[in-house]
Amino acid sequence: MAQLLPDFKIPSRGDKEITLGELAAQHSGLPRVPSNLLPKDVADPFADYDAAELKTFLAGYQLPRDPGAGYEYSNLGFGLLGYALAQLEHTSWDALSSEKIPKPLGMTMSGTAFSDAMRTHLAPGHDNTGNAAKNWGFDALAGTGAIRSTANDMLRYLKANMGIDASPLAAAMKLAQTPRSDMSKTMRIGLAWMTTRSGITWHSGLTGGYRSFLGFTADGQHGVVILSNTAVDIDDLGFATLNPRAPLTPAYKAIVLPAASLDEYVGTYKLAGKFLLKVFRVDNGLFVQATGQGPIPIFPSAPNEFFARAVRASATFTRDPDGVVTGLVLHQNGDRTARKLSASEIPPELKEIALDAATSGDYVGRYQFDFGAMLDVALKGDHLEAQITRQAAFPIFASGKDKFFYKSSTRNSTSNAMAAVRSSRRSCTSTDAICGRPA
Description:
By secondary structure, this protein is of the alpha+beta class. It has helices at residues 20-24, 51-60, 75-88, 93-100, 102-105, 116-120, 151-162, 170-177, 235-242, 357-361, and strands at 12-13, 16-17, 181-182, 187-189, 194-196, 201-207, 210-216, 223-228, 267-272, 275-282, 285-290, 296-302, 305-308, 313-319, 325-331, 335-340, 365-369, 374-380, 383-388, 393-400, 403-409, 414-420, 427-428. It folds into three domains: 12-242, Beta-lactamase (3-Layer(aba) Sandwich); 259-340, Lipocalin (Beta Barrel); 357-428. The strands form four sheets. Strands 9-10-11-12-13-14-15-16 form an eight-stranded antiparallel beta barrel. Strands 22-21-20-19-18-17-23 form a seven-stranded mixed sheet. The chain has a six-stranded antiparallel sheet with strand order 3-4-5-6-7-8, with helices on both faces. The two termini are 26 Å apart.
């Protein structure tokens, strides 16, 4: 790697350097995204991230583990891989990828840049709330997801990978598909391609308003391409198409409930230990806030039944014989019951402290989560507001140095949730409880 980019300082650990194979197999030790990814437009996060910023990040990054030691999905790693290969050929990723893949396979409607014909056939993207989403652009990290394509072209790519159509890339494709390392107890990974224990070889991806899935069975008899112009997870649909025993997430359709009835669900629910789910109302909708995480909207599919669009999760609210809401069942990677806490059981609210305007200004900026979303902190008059990508902005209140919390008032209750902001580093992390698995 260092030989391909002599002007870069590539992170290493001891005497172990990152190889191209480790980048391709997601075992490089690099993070999901670089911490200096601070886009001018959060709706188009990679467009202005250039080679100079990539070089700066790599020079200052320390690997948390040896290269090759463990799996960790890294968009940065694949972006770096594409950049390095383009430098090796003294060309751009656009030219290199077009020459090496679409051209030999006759994929005339694929590439990183829009042709006039491609733009004519473009299906506009939508976020997980159904609103229009911006098409992402890429600079130095184009290797992470800049290629655009059509269903017909992707079927050509699928048939070549399955060996149905003769291809000059057959040997390279077979090499890429061959598992090299473990991802988990049930999944292995080759060069980008992942293989399940049941033998399904697959990959999926997303950009702002789109999702994709491509996979095929070990016997080469079944394959599927799914392209969606909404940012809703479709992996389960891909697996269910290839394996009749694979679970399929129900398709939910939002309905409208009387606004007053939403107050019945407002409250704090204890999921496990100190992990709480706080349900609160904003205007005519409900939000759920898990301990240590940002709020996400939930939508009714039936009385007592709600689902999230931002993540693959739903909840059933339970009632006692008198019709009073007493708990919920969270449906996410199984079913987990949460009891609704009484007012006396709810932990005491955090106490707000005053910050002067100068100190508040220290926290203004953009903070990058490790799963790709952005937290925008802005000074609004005499208070700070925080907004996670494609979600509503909420005021945040200081409870101590570098410690802030949300405070969302409803008619009958007030819910609080912790948010930590550190002024010395524009990055954040989040756990995966009721927040989705990053794609």
